[in-house]
Design brief:
Elements lengths: L1 E4 L10 E4 L9 E11 L1 H8 L6 H4 L12 E9 L11 E5 L10 E5 L3 E3 L6 H5 L2 H14 L7 E5 L4 H12 L3 E6 L4 H6 L4 E4 L12 E6 L6 H7 E6 L5 H11 L5 E4 L6 H12 L7 E6 L3 H9 L6 E5 L3
Parallel strand pairs: 8-9, 8-11, 9-10, 11-12, 12-13, 14-15
Antiparallel strand pairs: 1-2, 3-4, 3-6, 3-15, 4-5, 5-7
């Protein structure tokens, strides 16, 4: 089978499209014929080996996994023993739990990390959902404890995680104030935001609004920003390790509720997202779709950090 592989840390140009052995089915796993992927910031962090602390799990001198990719959508070709929720021929989407292996024609994935694709959806749009959608849902509901009628500020509302966060928050009955660049204001309004702040016209670091929950997908809010504006906060993204540690250290001895987390794939949350999409309450926005042969260009594009919504990869183009 064909796969996108890497052998050393560096830029997107060191990726290769080559033939590798087709994975063998495992207990409680699905063998997926992958039709589409999406690209996430984690992919270029792994590709470059940055930040350095991440190499403790990825491999210190070179990556221990040669196939990149986490998000996928495709068709079940084979089921392992103990699988109870899926059968051959099912259309599924999901996430590789160990951070790599999805950028390939076939992938062997735990049943627990897959969800059923809703009728009327295609693989490209559903491949855009797992990491970004799970992060949005779990930031708001699992960790943010969002309740209907509460107010939420979403910093970084036009990107992969952000555009899902706006829609999920509205689906759960929140009053949403979103922060993005001036060029993305109309796009974020179209997602359902009640109010949009253009950060290049109003500094979020001086904003005087008050909110029940703050979700920071950019990771550029200061500790003082959380305290000034929110009752509780969730840090999703980060600009630098130094900035993230500074915010968390200042919160160590505070009563302010500030959490940072890594999204975890599971059937329940994936199917919750699938239902929200089926009901028309959430719609993945795909800014660009690349053929699998242009994976380096796709990763370079998302690394520019100017993506509106998601970037997808098709194995059929």
């Amino acid at each position: 089978m064909k796969a996108i592989t890497k052998y050393k840390y560096g830029g997107p140009e060191i990726l290769k499209l080559e033939e590798v052995e087709k994975p063998k089915i495992k207990e409680k796993h699905l063998l997926i014929h992958v039709k589409a992927n999406s690209v996430n910031p984690a992919d270029w962090h792994i590709l470059r080996g940055k930040p350095l602390f991440a190499r403790l799990t990825m491999g210190f001198f070179k990556p221990k996994d040669t196939i990149l990719g986490a998000d996928f959508a495709g068709i079940v070709e084979e089921v392992g023993s103990g699988v109870t929720n899926f059968k051959v021929g099912d259309r599924v989407f999901g996430e590789f739990l160990d951070g790599g292996g999805a950028f390939a024609e076939y992938a062997c994935v735990p049943e627990a990390a897959c969800g059923s694709m809703p009728e009327g959806t295609n693989e490209i749009e559903m491949a855009a959902v797992p990491i970004a959608g799970l992060t949005a849902l779990q930031a708001l509901i699992t960790h943010g404890k969002l309740k209907e009628g509460e107010s939420v500020l979403i910093n970084g509302s036009s990107g992969g995680v952000g555009h899902f966060t706006v829609q999920v928050a509205k689906a759960y009955g929140a009053q949403v104030t979103a922060v993005c660049s001036g060029r993305n204001v109309d796009f974020v309004k179209s997602l359902g935001a009640d109010k949009v702040i253009a950060y290049d016209q109003e500094s979020i670091h001086q904003h005087a609004g008050k909110y029940d929950l703050i979700i920071d997908t950019n990771g550029n809010l200061n500790y003082a920003d959380y305290k000034r504006m929110g009752k509780r906060g969730i840090m999703v993204g980060f600009t630098t390790m130094g900035h993230m540690m500074s915010v968390l250290l200042k919160n160590l001895f505070s009563k302010f509720s500030l959490r940072v987390f890594t999204a975890s794939a599971n059937n329940e949350d994936l199917n919750t997202l699938a239902n929200l999409i089926k009901e028309g309450k959430v719609k993945p926005h795909i800014e660009k779709t690349y053929p699998h042969s242009e994976m380096p260009e796709a990763i370079a594009y998302i690394e520019s950090m100017r993506t509106r919504g998601k970037v997808a990869i098709s194995w059929d183009l």
